[in-house]
Amino acid sequence: MKYLHLIWASLFRSRTRTLLTLLSVFVAFFLFGMLDSVRVAFNSGGDVTGANRMVVASRLSITQMLPYRLDPQIKSIPGVRKSTYAAWFGGIYQDPKNFFPNFSVGPDYLDLYPEFQLPAAQRKAWEADRQGAIVGETLAKKFGWKVGDTIPMQATIFPTKGSNDWSFKLDGIFRIDDVKRKGQEQMLLFHWNYFDEANDYVKGRVGWYIVQVENAGVSNRVAKAIDGLSANSDHETKTQTEEAFNQSFAKQIGDIGLIVTAIMAAVFFTLLLLTGNTMAQAVRERIPELAVLKTIGFQDRAVLALVLFESILLVAIGAVLGLFFAPLAMQVVSKGSGGFIALPDRLPPESWATGLVLMVLFGVLAGLLPALRAMRLNIVDALAGR
Amino acid sequence: MRIKRFLSNAGVFLLLVVGLVVWMFLSWPMVLGLAVLAALWLFLTRSGRLALAAAQVGIAGLPQRLGASSVIVVGIAGVVGVLVAMLAMGEGFRATLASTGGTDTAIILRGGSQAETNSVITRDQVPLIQSLDGIQRGSDGRALISPELSQVVNLPSMADGTDSNVQFRGVGPAAWQVRPKLKIVEGRRFNPGLREIVVGRGAQSQFRGLEVGHKLKLAQQEWTVVGAFESGDSHESELWADVDVLGPAYQRQAFQSVTAKLDGATGFKRLKAALAADPRLKLDVMTTHDYYAKQSENLTKLINILGKVIGAIMALGAIFGALNSMYAAVSGRAREIATMRALGFRGLPVVTAVMLETMLLALVGGVIGALLAWLLFNGHSVSTLGNNFSQVVFQFRVSPDLLWTGLKWALGIGLVGGLFPALRAARMEVTDALRAQ
For position B148, what pLDDT does the model report? Predict the structure, then answer.
């Protein structure tokens, strides 16, 4: 890289042009960073921690509940290491606009979700407190809740003693370090036992079971065995990996991935055209200079490399800045929407990787034609200005 | 000299910001008026005619600068296309739910429930509701109400066969009178008491196995599709059957909602009062129009915000692109512009000429983008998860309003992207520029 200063100097030959190109590359990658991290967040839910987890839900419809008596039956199936259950509660806090997921869970729930980090003392307190609840850090921050607070909730589905008023004592606040699962910090969890006893409508029913299998190899067999338990009954089940279960939801919200890809394609096409045009202009203006370089002994290939690296450098500077600033903007969006849109507050490594590949690719694509032109320059013609 | 230049640039920038804000709020008659004024100035005054002449020179040279000018056109087309498509999606969703229901029908839900999924109305409450004031009576003297139950069922999607949640609605005998918009377009209505289904056209287009005559297995039982209906609203995403058959099939004793035809203009008020007066009924009532409009609120807002944020970021990119190209165009034509200035063209005509050129390119880009969005997306059917955990099928709607919004954005981008290069052209030192290579 002994020619770096040469590339650098030619990059800033026309400051306005370079700056404007940098800015548009910046904008494109800024947008890419935001959209791609949303896409990654949408497609996640199935990394290593959850690989062995499966969800058992009603085959008929997700609003249909399953009998509690399946629990021991599921636990006795060979290959099942642990299992627990949960039920959707659907309560609202103060205003329906403050939507966040809240559900009751079985006693071992946290054992199956090791990524939920709850201090041991708080966990103990929660387990001992029948009407206790735990919430994620994001949610606690949003409403300013502290451990020990009482949280009043309005039921939308399940009244208790004829009234919709439920209240829970906040026993613990859990956090999740994984960027892609940060969204789950918006949850409130409380005990299923309490729910089962206090609600007026359903008794002995859970919404879904979560099953941890010994290894991924047995999951197919276990799933079949679980579904076999209630085949041809009025509560047939469907067992699938947690990833598949989550994705079936994400998919139904609309084909986010497709929309994002379409937008990105539009943005990058424009970007490519723009950078390519800038590079072409830069080479056109510098024809006499390039001819001089060749005259003093630069090889054709060296000239090609110089122009190409210049283009890659130009794209890379803008791109890295853009990717760097994208998460900051995402935090602003998340804050501004009052939690209504919860974007990850860091750029997932996948997005960085894709971004790096893209910046090299675009650098090459944009610079290739001008670089080839520079390489093929005929010294005599170029110096003569023909 | 430098400070003066800086100050004047800052002034122009401020004016530009104000101008853009005003521009975004202008309605089309005002813009038309502005365009007419500009045209009058161009054709009737001396400096206007000079500007026009200068612009002609620039525009005639456009084909030679195809690369640079296409950057502006494609960039702006991209922005406008994406923006219009996103807004059309939000608009389509909103329109579908807004046209569902009306002010002449009301939906009754259990107190505190936000949606039908969460609601329970017990069987013994139905006769009480029937006797309430404010509900229209049919020719047989019975209140026109349809107690309903909606189940979410899994059906394979048309696109890739993955399971989607579809609303399977059981309706009461008065359902057809309560929702007169709904028309059977193929086959016939279901017969009460039989396991027969009529399906919405929207559902038919999105999920497999809903052709008339097909048999479906739902809740361990076989159901026959006997008809298809059109309603132009969100009911088109649903499957309908007799509530008295659907309930037992899913072991449901209670209903979830009651939809009632209201009696005249005061019906809703009377019904609401009657409901509040009856202590046995802890129920909420709202017009179906309000109910469905509320359901679309959040998602429409989200799509609109997203569309505008993405559009704005892209617009910024396009502005940098346009600035770049126009600066290049101006410096490439430095001699030409200087010659004109030497011939006696003043600043204003030169600025106007460059602006006209940019605006023309922006307009072309805007039209292409809007046209693309319209061709690709107008009427494109998509579905999303609605408030009831079930799919709502809707179509992108590229309305003339949205096309207009797109064009406004395009011209706004052109305005910003052209102004500074235009000013540079007008400020160029004639002697230096004439000597330029």
Answer: 93
List the 367-396 stretch of B: residues with Cβ below 8 A of A. Answer: 382-385, 389, 391
Two structure tokens written together for A280:
């072409």
Tens digits of per-residue pLDDT, B408-419?
Answer: 999 999 998 888
B117 touches chain A (CB under 8 A): yes
Residues above pLDDT 70, as percent of chain A: 91
Question: What percentage of chain B carries pLDDT values higher than 70?
Answer: 99
In a mutational test of the B interface, the residue from A35, A63, A271, A341 whose CB has the highest number of chain B CBs within 10 Å is A63
Mean pLDDT of B354-366: 92
For the stretch A34-58, pLDDT in tens is 888 877 776 655 444 556 888 998 8
State residue B262's pLDDT score. 92
Mutate to test the interface with B, among A20, A39, A373 (most CBs of B within 10 A): A20
ipTM over 0.85: no
**To the nearest whole angstrom, how far is the Cα of B32 from the nearest Cα of chain A?**
30
pTM over 0.90: no
Residue B248 touches chain A, beta carbons under 8 Å: no
Query: B298 and A340: CB-CB below 8 Å?
Result: yes
